[in-house]
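To the wet lab folks,

You asked to see what we're planning to order before we commit. Fair enough. Below is the target structure as tokens, and below that is the sequence we designed to fit it. If anything looks off to you, flag it before the synthesis order goes out.
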């Protein structure tokens, strides 16, 4: 097995803080409480910091290192369909799509949540409905993300959850890797 330092401390702390904050707000806080509101602001702040880090951070944190082009997505789906295993040291193209999906969903949840606290949108049904729909979308996406991480870990032989904890990806020797 060969080990590569991939995920820097900011990316790992961001990931797990987002997990904890979203789970706390979705599962444990009262929707009408100040704690729910402040956790929402904290999550939006995390997203803003990640967007900056995606431009100025180290190689594997930068969005340019894993931008999901159509050809890259098709290549990954083709690899999966034909049983080829091409490892990505950073995020996979499908993983990148999920990242952008989740970043956007959480950001929009925060925006609609904030809108509900303003005089202009207080009591407006579509804002609350959009907020709730986005939360449902994020929850579905999270379940799909977890399932895909487990499946890809088994398919490729790379323990992806461990890599997001330690920052180190350990891949089988001689594996075909994309940088």
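Sequence we intend to order:
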């Amino acid at each position: 097995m060969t080990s590569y330092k991939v995920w820097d401390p900011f990316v790992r702390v961001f990931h797990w803080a987002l997990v904890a904050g979203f789970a706390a707000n979705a599962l444990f806080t009262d929707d009408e409480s100040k704690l729910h509101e402040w956790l929402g602001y904290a999550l939006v702040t995390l997203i803003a910091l990640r967007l900056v880090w995606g431009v100025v951070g180290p190689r594997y944190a930068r969005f340019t290192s894993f931008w999901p082009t159509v050809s890259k997505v098709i290549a990954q789906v083709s690899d999966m369909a034909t049983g080829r295993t091409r490892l990505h040291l950073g995020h996979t193209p499908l993983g990148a799509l999920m990242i952008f999906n989740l970043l956007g969903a959480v950001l929009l949840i925060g925006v609609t949540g904030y809108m509900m606290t303003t005089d202009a949108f207080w009591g407006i049904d579509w804002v609350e409905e959009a907020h709730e729909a986005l939360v449902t979308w994020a929850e579905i996406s999270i379940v799909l993300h977890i399932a895909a991480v487990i499946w890809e870990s088994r398919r490729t032989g790379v323990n992806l959850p461990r890599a997001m904890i330690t920052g180190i990806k350990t891949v089988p020797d001689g594996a075909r890797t994309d940088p």
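Structural context that might help your review: The first helix runs from residue 9 to 28. DSSP finds six helices and four strands in the chain.

Thanks,
Computational group
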